[in-house]
Amino acid sequence: MRLPGQDTGELYQRNPARHPPAYTPTYKTSVLRSPSNALIALQSSLSEITGPQFAASELGALDNDLIGNYSKSGLPIGERIIVHGYVLDENGYPVPNALIEVWQANAGGRYRHTRDQYIAPIDPNFGGCGRMLTDANGYYYYRTIKPGPYPWRNHVNDWRPAHIHYSLSGDAFGQRLITQMYFAGDPLIATCPIVRTIRDEDAVRSLIAQPDTRATTQFDARAYRFDIVLRGRRATLFEDHIHGESA
Ligand SMILES: [Fe+2]
Q1: Which of 27, 70, 111, 224 is catalytic?
Q2: Are 182 and 207 a contacting pair, CB within 8 Å?
């Protein structure tokens, strides 16, 4: 449950020690993407801490089913998996009605995108995009095909580990988070130039989904658990006592 006043509270500042720096030459495209001047911290305005608001009616029935939402002549090729978990804020409260958008390569490591020229074939039955809203407990769930690793033009013989891209919008624009989810046990995680821009080992671990045998669908799909933490609000700590403690 959200606390009264929580929806309009100021967000905590991002922790720069946990997020990777913008300028990381080992990840080549960061050189041009990163700002050349120091950032300026601004007070959040109401528009950043009270919106967006999403409605379930805006989403389609198959939006969270990447196995079925682009199927044309049959089912997509690859490992059938479920990904599920909770979206929480930094105070440990669930973030209900958060929009989660995911996109990924197919089982061979190829994106359905005109600029992806990797030799692995496009799967005619796999689009690679999905979206969903968290429920009242911050829980989300989708079905998909496990993506394959792919080579990329960074340095010679750099390969991306299997990953799914995430965009999250909570109930405040300032909570927006763009990130990637990896799969436990993938040896490419340790050598990935993008992963290696993250200096905090615990932050790296937080991006790795773990197998969840209890959520497996028998004779259908294995499951992975992936929880996500968005920025928290100071409002809960501005009470006369911290939530959970006696007054
Ligand atoms: Fe990717």
Answers
A1: 111
A2: yes
pLDDT on residue 7: 56
Q: What is the mean pLDDT of each run of 10 residues along the chain (247 residues)?
A: 55 88 93 92 81 92 98 97 97 95 98 95 98 97 98 94 97 92 98 95 97 96 97 64 48
Question: What integer pLDDT is reported at residue 9 of this predicted model?
Answer: 76
Kindly give the distance from the C-alpha atom of residue 208 to the centroid of ligand 1, in angstroms, as a whole number.
15
Q: How far apart are the first and last CA of the chain?
A: 20
Residue of 131, 143, 160, 231 with catalytic role: 160
Q: Determine the Cα angle at 190 with ends 187 and 193, to 5°.
A: 120
Please indicate, yes or no, whether the overall pTM of this predicted structure exceeds 0.85. yes
Distance 55 CA to ligand 1 centre (A): 28
Tell me which of 165, 222, 225, 234 is the catalytic residue: 165
Is 165 annotated in the active site?
A: yes
d(CA 133, CA 155): 37
Domains and CATH numbers, the chain: 16-242 (2.60.130.10)
The span from the CA of 226 to the CA of 189, in Å, is 16
Give which of 196, 84, 216 is closest to 140, Cα–Cα. Answer: 84
